Amino acid sequence: MKRIRTHYIYIALVLIASITISACKVSYKFNGASIDYTKTKTIQIADFPIRSSYVWGPMGPMFNNQLKDMFASHTKLSQVKRNGDLKIEGEITQYSQRNKSVSASGQSAQTELSITVNVRFTNNVNHSEDFERHFTSSKSYETTQSLATVQEELVTQMVKDITEQIFNATVANW
Is the pTM of this model over 0.85? Predict the structure, then answer.
């Protein structure tokens, strides 16, 4: 008798757990974006011109392509030339290098390379989310290396970092 009652209690617990689990809905977004696609369907991303006094030619196209690719691969937004629900524009305002550390002999040991981008974000669905902000990324390299040998790799890393910062600030709402 006791065994039968235990069996019924076990069945009842399994049924209650099943009903509870099926009644719950858990939703995860693995792309990092928190966009209401019923209201926001398009994004307009302007090319960012380089307004820095120091320039490395491939940096502009590299940045513009990476930014557009970030939104294309991580959202369902359609990219449009004008009248987007979201609008991202701006300019690359600084590309510079400076001595970061000095060796015991008084010589420069490390150089820091940095990129700063000014971004104007307009959310035509919810203007309270509009902003204008600077995003910066820096990478260091040993002064024994020439800039020409490390520039492409470092700029690629910094562009990836800045485009992720812009993505997070505009649509991830972290």
Answer: no
> CB neighbours (10 Å) of residue 95?
21
- In terms of Cα–Cα distance, which of 164, 125, 129, 118 is closest to 42? 125
46 is written with which tokens?
Answer: 């302007």
- Work out the burial of residue 138: count CB atoms within 10 Å of its CB; fewer than 13 is exposed, 13-18 middle, 19 or more buried: middle
CA–CA separation, 123 vs 130, rounded Å? 6
Token reading at 125? 């669905």
User: What residues form DSSP beta bridges with 97?
Assistant: 113
The low-confidence residues of the chain, meaning pLDDT below 50, are 22-31
Contacts of 93 (CB under 8 A, 6+ apart): 51, 52, 116, 117, 118, 134
Going across the sheet that includes 108-123, the strands are 78-79, 42-45, 86-102, 108-123, 131-142
Q: In the block, which residue shows the tokens 């689990």?
A: 21
- 10-35 confidence digits (pLDDT tens): 665 555 655 555 444 333 344 457 89
